[in-house]
């Protein structure tokens, strides 16, 4: 029975990474005045693309296909979030909050996947998920450590009536 859940959760994780790719691409396009944030988003976008590839590899090895429906659903959700963010004058702050929350969501998913893979005696899945977990934890830690600074920078720019404060 645990193999069925592992398969479903791997598909979910793959869709989650596809959603993350779209969200990160959209954020990176619109961040001009926050170079440290932009650089970290670009770095994590690269990591996220490799995470999806790693998941595809272990899924192929186990004979599990990705779910086109789940992947598309994740991408559509990311698109909706991106469009909604573009309309907000405080997009950089709201994006930082949403990104931190999403990283915590990913961390929880990978912890569950690791437990399921251990239970199903799938050491390669455990190894890959632990690698990905470390990257997600590093991104969440970075966002946690920089949200205060990003918020203060935004508020300073907004107080100066900088029309580009959201970027």
How would you characterize the overall build of this protein?
By secondary structure, the protein is mainly α. The chain is built from five helices and no strands. The chain starts with a helix and ends in an 8-residue tail after the last helix. The chain has a single domain, classed as Ferritin, core subunit, four-helix bundle (Ferritin, Up-down Bundle), CATH 1.20.1260.10.
List keywords for this structure.
167 residues; mainly alpha; Ferritin; 5 helices; Ferritin-like; coiled coil; Ferritin-like domain-containing protein; DUF892_YciF-like; YciF
User: Which second-level CATH architecture applies?
Assistant: Up-down Bundle
Low-pLDDT ranges: 78-86
Order of helix and strand elements from N to C terminus? HHHHH
CATH class: Mainly Alpha
> How can the largest sheet be summarized?
none
Q: Give the integer mean of the pLDDT values.
A: 85
Strand content: under 5%
State the CATH superfamily name. Answer: Ferritin, core subunit, four-helix bundle
Pfam family, one: DUF892
Protein name: Ferritin-like domain-containing protein
InterPro entries: DUF892_YciF-like, Ferritin-like, Ferritin-like_SF, YciF
Keywords: Coiled coil
